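Researcher: Please generate the 3D structure of the following complex. Treat every line as part of one assembly.
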Amino acid sequence: MKAISKPFVAISEDSLGATERLFYPECGPMPYESIYSIYLKFSYLNGIKLSAVDRPLNIISEQQWSGHVLTSWLESRVADIDSHLPWRYAPYKYIYSNKLGEFRFCKECIRFGYHSVFNSILTHNVCALHKCSLTRACFHCAVEYLHGFRPCQSIPHFMKKCSVCGFQRIELTREFRMRRSPRLLSSLEEFGRRQAEWYESIFDVDLVYFNHYCEQDEQRNYLTGSFEILTKLKSPETLAGFSRVIQSCIFVELGRDRDCGQSYPETQGAICEQLEARHLGRHQYCLRFLNEMLRYPDGAETTVNLCPISLAYLILRIKGVYGKWPVPGSTSINLAGMPELASWGRISDPISNYRGAFLLFLSILGRLQYHISQGCSFAILCRPDKRHLIVGETERVIIKKATYSFRSMCQRSSSRVRLFRNGVGGPITVIVEADKCSVDGYFGIKNVIF
Ligand SMILES: [Zn+2]
Ligand SMILES: [Zn+2]
Ligand SMILES: [Zn+2]
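Model: Done. Output below.
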């Protein structure tokens, strides 16, 4: 190991191509180690400032990678460098650039100087190997350690650990101490391979859904179970031991009928009448109670047992009438007056006929079961920009299915889920008995947007 600082401070492609004086260990990187981790080790080992090689930690795409000064050097010396590039597993838009404040790591992995390639994916929040959530490097650590080698830097004690975020400098001394454990290497290989397979397989399911999955935590949580069913693989979260309720799902053709769709939409009133006749026959009683609850409250709090079918149907109607709900003075959405509402203009989803509305109803019902199965109480808000029917690559929408036992919950005498609304017209709150999340009264309950 030699630390040559001066000749390499201003590094150029020529000098990289010509020199053999740069050093990288022959054993190569750890399995599925991130390119950023490789860069940092490279920097410390060779005594080169990262800024001198063109800010490699900001590289987040194939294009930037191919144009970088170190690329060809690494490609010729590191076997299978592709497996260390995060954009191989997720679209570059959803990769952290690891600017200050964005570097996430596993507190256990960092002890042996390891940073996984998957940690840079925006919605990837777990370490599958250590069964824990990732941590964000604090500002101090980002400034101190993510710039790589700096000539003026005091040599930190190599076991030093940040008392704020738990970060430790990523470098080879730690790695070499751990390399003696063949079990560790085979575990990194095994978990890395399974996660790589996961990302590659869900990419193949549907690109539109894959993008949503990588973009937002909420979408990822919602889609993970469905992807597990469709790919028959375990998600990183499941590998990490975060339990989840598996709810089956279906891909359905949305079937937008262009002729009698956009130009002659069926009215909301007509569609609601049809829905009520076909699916709410046995729930007239539940519907009446729920309507009462939604009527502008007279100052009295109300609690009723949950009827999922009626609630899903009422959310559908609310979305069709109000852009945003609840608002002061928001009342029940009785059928009266609905025939005048011609289209579903307020809804972001592509609805032009009964079938579209029915699929939206099914999607709301499936989501209700999904949220209730998380075991936490929540408040229901309706927002116009919330989309349920996300149309995938092949014009299909994915819908989580509600089970028969969930749909018929109101037919059983003792319901473990109740609905509550305060006397001043707040949101409907779904109270899950034996709430897993500690909630103080009805305050601090999370909102779920429909
Ligand atoms: Zn870990
Ligand atoms: Zn820190
Ligand atoms: Zn019912």
